[in-house]
Design brief:
The complex is a heterodimer of chains A (201) and B (504).
Chain A lengths: L17 E4 L5 E2 L1 E6 L14 E4 L5 H13 L4 H4 L2 E4 L3 H10 L4 E5 H10 L1 H4 L2 E6 L3 E2 L2 E2 L9 H11 L5 H10 L3 E3 L7 H13 L1
Parallel strand pairs in A: 4-5, 4-6
Antiparallel strand pairs in A: 1-9, 1-10, 2-8, 3-6, 3-7
Helix pairs in contact in A: 1-8
Chain B lengths: L1 H13 L6 H57 L2 H14 L5 E7 L5 E4 L13 H4 L7 E5 L4 E10 L2 E11 L1 H51 L16 H64 L3 H29 L6 E3 L1 H17 L3 E6 L5 E4 H18 L5 E8 L3 E8 L6 H7 L12 H13 L3 E7 L3 E9 L4 H4 L4 H9 L2
The chains are: A alpha+beta (201), B alpha+beta (504).
């Protein structure tokens, strides 16, 4: 797979920026997964479980699930029996696989990569919910530093990574096609979700 | 016979004091080795157990210290993941402790996190059947049979409890080490015990070999052959046994000298007896001789008369017959070929002919009962001479006009001869000597006859019993067991008898 669709620079330029692109698009999903022994088949069946979030600042590891709960007029405390943060997407998979948590919110990109790299661990989990595609987490810099030589150099390094031999090795390791320039429009859906969650709080 | 042998074996087994030294010493060595081995093994195992427990306490304390340091802060925050992550990482960090599971329990007795979340879910309570194993006060609880141990450690921050670490660890490996040490001790000590017992047995057998040689030669003395131990056997033995051998040889030489002397005395005694017998025989022969001469005179004068001639010839025949019986009996008793096997009833009755003159001389009543009706497998000369000696002794011991009883019979595969006299009784030391119990200090006078009797009866493996009282006289009972294979003994047996008969 190659880099399919270059994205224009961000609406509010924040300096050299790029979005990672998987499967040719700078998009990814949130997965809600369960332990392999769970009988749950959908998100709604996760009520009363012990839930593992990735990080309170994570879109896929927290925000999306908070949004799903908010539209149901629920909070993690009311919906789940217990919840905790593992501060790492891989840790969510570990928590699910060990049985520490019954359900967990995880970055779909991480889960997919792990299913290739650590199939035994991932085999102990099962995805019951996949969110819509959302903009891949961006690489950003301070607005004031956007036009500096350093920022532009870093931006070029990301955008031209697929053209370079070492860069290609890095992309293979990261299981990415490449980096593209993006606009804030790519994150509109994410922003809307954040607003819904914020309104509930 | 078999039962008697079995009984003697049982007696030997139950009577420890009678065991041979070559058994006792190795068994004693083995016993001591077992005692030492058991004591050492117990000390080693006890020390091992103590050290293992001490090491286990030190190890588990270090383990709990490490986990406590890692989980105290997450526990304070109620951080399930960090607590679990610390426990999960501890699996690989503490390879010396085989933890089956580790639980972090909050003060409300709920599980914050456990290394086995499926078994101990977050916020669950620990089942009673599991919590009962953990020590109430921080420490270590052991189940040696189950090969498990339970640890407990309270997590404290500024003196306040924020939770507790509970862990079950597998100590089967430690118990396996103990078990291996135990079996190693058993095998090594067992092998050493056996080896020492075998070496002890072998060495002692070797050390006691001279004793066996000495016993053999002493046994020969008992059988009448006092042979010195050959000088060649004196080498390679300890000084004690060498001295013993030298003393035995000195004793054997002295005994042989005494035997030779006794044989000479026996020959003289025999000559004396012969003299007595010759005198008696002369008397016996002389008695009919007067009648015979008369008969010859009668024949000369009235030989023409057939009736006188016949009656006179009959008289002559009876007289000569009487003389021939006396002469034959004497010849049979004293000729060397008399020591052949096959004792006929007549061989016993013949003796009466030899004793009668002596009995008649002292006016003794000879009660003669011979209940032997078949030929017996016994040495003729030996039996006859021993019996004759006893009969002559009885006659000599009895006062004039007394009674001498003679009885010969077959009893339990043996010829039994009983001779009773009305004498003053046999001195106890002579009676004991006759029965083969020790040596008589002196054998004066008639004692030499007793010496001959003992040698002759002993040579035929016979036995002598004496019942003697001052008022009732003496009864001597001799039993000669039948020879099972007389032919095989023809060469061996007469040695003693011939020595006595032909000595000098």
């Amino acid at each position: 797979l190659g880099l399919r669709r270059p994205v224009r620079p961000a609406r509010r330029p924040t300096g050299p920026a790029g979005d990672a692109a998987v499967s040719g698009e700078p998009l990814y999903q949130t997965y809600v997964a369960v332990n392999e022994n769970s009988r749950a088949q959908s998100f709604d069946e996760l009520v009363g479980t012990i839930h593992a979030f990735s990080d309170p600042d994570s879109t896929s590891g927290y925000l999306v699930t908070r949004y799903l709960l908010a539209v149901r007029r629920q909070t993690p405390a009311s919906f789940f029996r217990e919840f905790f943060f593992t501060y790492g997407h891989r840790n969510v998979v570990r928590a699910l696989a060990s049985g520490l948590a019954d359900s967990g919110s995880i970055d779909g990109y991480v889960w997919d990569v792990m299913s290739e790299r650590e199939p035994e661990l991932v085999a102990k989990t099962r995805v019951v919910y996949q969110s819509e595609r959302l903009g891949f987490p961006p690489i950003v810099c301070l607005k004031t530093a956007r036009d500096t030589e350093t920022a532009e150099g870093i931006s070029r390094a990301f955008l031209d990574m697929r053209m370079d031999a070492l860069g290609q090795k890095i992309l293979v390791t990261l299981k990415l096609d490449g980096f593209v320039a993006a606009t804030p429009d790519l994150y509109r859906a994410t922003l809307e979700k954040w607003l819904v969650v914020k309104a509930q709080a | 016979m078999a039962r008697r042998e079995g009984a003697s074996v049982m007696f030997l087994i139950t009577n420890v004091r009678s065991w041979p030294l070559s058994w006792k010493a190795p068994l004693l060595t083995a016993g001591l080795m077992i005692g030492i081995a058991t004591t050492i093994s117990q000390v080693v195992l006890s020390r091992l157990a103590s050290d293992q427990e001490s090491n286990l306490r030190a190890l588990t304390n270090a383990y709990l210290d490490g986990i406590s340091a890692a989980v105290t802060q997450p526990v304070m925050r109620g951080d399930v993941w960090e607590t679990f992550d610390a426990l999960d990482r501890a699996r690989t960090h503490y390879t010396g402790v085989a933890a089956r599971y580790v639980i972090v329990e909050l003060p409300d007795k709920r599980v914050l996190a456990a290394s086995e979340p499926l078994r101990f879910p977050v916020r669950s309570s620990i089942p009673d059947e599991i919590s009962v194993h953990f020590p109430v006060i921080d420490g270590l609880g052991l189940d040696k049979d189950g090969g498990r141990a339970w640890l407990s450690r309270t997590l404290k921050v500024e003196g306040h409890s924020v939770g507790k670490i509970l862990a079950e660890i597998d100590i089967a490996a430690l118990l396996e080490v103990r078990r291996r040490v135990f079996w190693t001790l058993v095998l090594v000590n067992g092998a050493m015990t056996l080896a020492f017992a075998a070496i002890g047995y072998s060495v002692l057998q070797r050390m006691l070999r001279p004793l066996g040689t000495l016993t053999r030669y002493v046994e020969r003395v008992r059988e009448g052959r006092a042979e010195p131990i050959p000088e060649g056997d004196h080498h390679k033995i300890s000084a004690e046994f060498r001295r013993l051998f030298d003393r035995f040889n000195a004793m054997a030489r002295a005994l042989n000298g005494r035997e030779t002397l006794a044989a000479r005395l026996a020959a003289q005694e025999k000559l004396a007896v012969l003299g007595k017998l010759a005198s008696a025989m002369a008397h016996e022969v002389n008695n009919p001789l007067g009648g015979l001469f008369n008969a010859v005179d009668t024949l000369r004068r009235h030989g023409a008369d057939p009736s006188v001639r016949d009656s006179t010839l009959n008289l002559l025949h009876r007289g000569l017959w009487q003389i021939r019986k006396v002469v034959r009996s004497t010849i049979v008793t004293y000729r060397p070929e008399g020591f052949s096997y096959g004792l006929a009833p007549a061989d016993i009755d013949d003796l009466r002919m030899l004793v009668d003159p002596e009995a008649a001389r002292k006016n003794l009543v000879l009660e003669w009962r011979n209940e032997v009706f078949d030929k017996l497998p016994l040495a003729v000369g030996s039996v006859r001479q021993a019996t004759l000696n006893l009969l002559l002794n009885a006659c000599a011991a009895s006062p004039p006009g007394g009674k001498v009883d003679f009885l010969a019979k077959v009893e339990s595969e043996a010829l039994v001869v009983e001779i009773g006299d009305a004498g003053p009784g046999l001195p106890s030391d002579l009676a004991a000597y006759l029965m083969g119990e020790g040596e008589a200090a002196t054998l004066p006078g008639d004692g030499l006859g007793l010496w001959i009797v003992r040698r002759l009866v002993g040579g035929e493996r016979g036995s002598i019993e004496v019942a003697s009282t001052a008022t009732q006289g003496t009864i001597v009972r001799v039993a000669w067991p039948f020879r099972k294979d007389p032919a095989a003994k023809d060469e061996e047996m007469p040695a003693i008898a011939e020595e006595i008969v032909h000595a000098g």
